[in-house]
Amino acid sequence: MSKATTTGLILAAGKGTRMKSDLPKCLHQVCGVPMVKLVADNMISAGVDRVIIVVGHGGEAIVEALGPSYLYAWQREQLGTGHAVQCALAELGEVEGTVVIACGDTPLISVDYFKEFLAEHNGTCTLSVAHLSDATGYGRVVVENGVATRIVEQKDASDEEKQIRYANAGMYCVDGASLREALKTLKSDNAQGEYYLTDIVSYLSESSRAVKAFISADPSILLGVNDRVQLAEANTILRRQINERHMRAGVTIVDPATTYIGPAVSIGQDSIIEPNTYLEGSTVVGAGSRIGPNCKFSDMRIGNDCYLFMSHGYEATVGNGCRIGPFANIRPKTVLEDGVRLGNFVEVNRSHLHAGVKVNHLTYIGDSEIGEETNIGAGTITCNYDGYKKSRTTIGKNVFVGSNSTLVAPVTIGDGALTAAGSVITDEIPAGGAGFGRARQVTKDGWAERRRQQHENTPE
Ligand code: UD1
Ligand code: CA
Predict the structure, then answer these.
(1) Is there a catalytic annotation at residue 28?
(2) Among the atoms of ligand 1, which is closest to the Cα of residue 36?
(3) Is there a domain that residue 453 lies in?
(4) Are residues 202 and 269 in the same domain?
(5) 153 in ligand 1 pocket by Cβ < 6 Å?
(6) pLDDT in tens, 45-101
(7) Which residues in the chain land under pLDDT 50?
(8) CA–CA separation, 6 vs 173, rounded Å?
(9) Which pTM value belongs to this model?
(10) Within this chain, do residues 38 and 131 fall inside the same structural domain, yes or no?
(11) CB 358 within 8 A of CB 339
């Protein structure tokens, strides 16, 4: 491995006792993404050659949630942040070049900050420091002339040291060989009985290797999440940053305080996002679309000039010029082509609706293919499940499905055909044909009138 290599280590093995949670702390989400994934992705985007996540407590859950595209090292027993790095280095073997260390619970460190920090590093070790008005909870950094000489943890700090406003952000850039050497000297004779990574600073400093303090102008970037109050704080900050990015790029966000957009979402120019709207995961929204109020969409592709309101959807595709809602539910593997309309209380699942299809009221469409310009009447149900297996409904173009039709799959309706309102359709209807699947009406003259009189003449 060349000298220029940088290895990223993200510490995520701790239990996160202060979260009071069964979920490992680093899997708690900020803007819909596990904290540790935010840190890892930003580190990777900043150009770190390889990133290793150190897992331990709840490690299986972290590996399962993040998947095989990340590298992991194990700290089986959690004896402190220094011990976590020792474990990772023991697993990695020879590490040359620079090691960048960050914590999995500092989710706001941006790609730009990582880049600046890496660019700033030129000696043995650089430490990221936040200058805070109140540094309670953080390790306090003793800084002299831009050089960090020592870090003292909150629990070990004297009253005087607690006044220090330089907080350790838990991020280090350090020469691999010096790191290895410093780690060997760690002791656990402190308030928490742990091997603190922070102690490498005094060791390096005492052995004449200056630790540069990289003091942040925007300390919110370095927020460490230890409890759920800080989790909410991190959500608020990141949400605001994401919303501002979209607004600056030409998206109207009517009420940023109630608009929840994931970091990976993209939105085209002149789209309008109305209040109480969630756009999550890999959702892409085209230009000139209006979404909300009260929408929640995850991993969706939504085209240009659409209007979606008070609706929900995930893992589905919506073409251009579609009008969805209120109260539509678009489920996975659904494709709505251009100009489709879904109205109130319409659920579409694993179905392909071609251009101009209208499904305006109270309908379930599952495992179906519906041709261009077909109109699905109010209350139509595709019966795609017989209790054992799912079957398909195929409907041609320009079909008129009468209100309250029950389409029992597998079934096919040809182009230009119709079904009579209230029909139960079990057999194929050829193109241009009509399906009547209902009992013929019996009309009895005077029947209702006689019934009413009978009631009125009967004593209580
Ligand atoms: C740590 C720093 C503190 C700093 C703060 C920044 C130490 C001793 N203290 O404190 O100076 O101000 O971060 O946010 O380093 N972890 C492991 N294995 C362990 C223990 C922890 O992987 O055995 C991981 C945790 O999962 C977490 C990170 O290391 O992601 C930091 O641990 P945490 O317990 O949150 O440390 P802090 O008390 O916040
Ligand atoms: Ca922490």
Answers:
(1) no
(2) 30
(3) no
(4) no
(5) yes
(6) 999 999 999 999 999 999 999 999 999 999 999 999 999 999 999 999 888 899 999
(7) 1-3
(8) 9
(9) 0.93
(10) yes
(11) no
